[in-house]
């Protein structure tokens, strides 16, 4: 029995044509695993910045038709606060009171993300960028043999440093998807 062979046609760029090349940008001086995990965090942050660039105040404060959802502004502040907590967790330190006063708590007294009103997207991204820089500095000092070290986590639990850095990247991707969804919903409403 003969089987027909299908040839796959692939367009191969000519020499000189620009091709996109995807890879993680590992900062010089970071160890292998910490560098790779941190590059995932940074990649997600850069992607998030592109996603919110140019949004209006109305767009970032939008809380859904019923006004019962988190806004993009609230999610951006939440990401900043969570990442700030990891900056200090990875060093086994408490978040300084000044930071909590400036950015607010992780959740409010009702267990919800704290309300954020009339703060520009550029201000929120600038705050988040500063925290990303702090996170990078912490990761720069993590050695390969420290990745399994345990740091304090929520509810009296602990997490490895490796898991903590991965979690920051994963958490960011989760809220990135929410932000994309909110933008689409805003356009529909």
From TrEMBL:
Residue ranges annotated for the DinB-like domain, each copy included: 47-179
A Pfam family this chain is assigned to: DinB_2
Source superkingdom: Bacteria
Gene3D superfamilies (UniProt xref): dinb family like domain
InterPro entries xrefs: DinB-like, DinB/YfiT-like
SUPFAM superfamilies associated with the record: DinB/YfiT-like putative metalloenzymes
Segment forming the signal sequence: none
Full protein name: DinB family protein
């Amino acid at each position: 029995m003969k089987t027909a062979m299908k040839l796959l046609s692939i367009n191969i760029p000519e020499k000189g044509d620009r091709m996109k090349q995807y890879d993680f940008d590992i900062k010089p001086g970071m160890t292998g695993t910490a560098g790779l995990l941190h590059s995932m965090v940074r990649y997600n942050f850069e992607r998030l910045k592109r996603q919110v660039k140019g949004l209006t105040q109305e767009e970032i404060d939008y809380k859904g038709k019923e006004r019962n959802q988190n806004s993009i502004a609230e999610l951006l502040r939440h990401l900043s606060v969570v990442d700030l907590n990891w900056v200090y967790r990875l060093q086994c330190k408490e978040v300084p009171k000044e930071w909590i006063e400036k950015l607010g708590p992780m959740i409010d007294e009702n267990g919800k993300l704290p309300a954020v009103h009339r703060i520009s997207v550029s201000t929120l991204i600038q705050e988040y960028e500063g925290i990303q820089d702090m996170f990078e500095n912490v990761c720069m000092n993590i050695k390969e043999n420290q990745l399994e070290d345990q740091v304090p986590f929520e509810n009296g639990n602990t997490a490895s440093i490796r898991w903590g850095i991965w979690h920051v990247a994963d958490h960011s991707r989760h809220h990135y998807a929410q932000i994309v969804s909110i933008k689409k919903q805003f356009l529909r409403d």
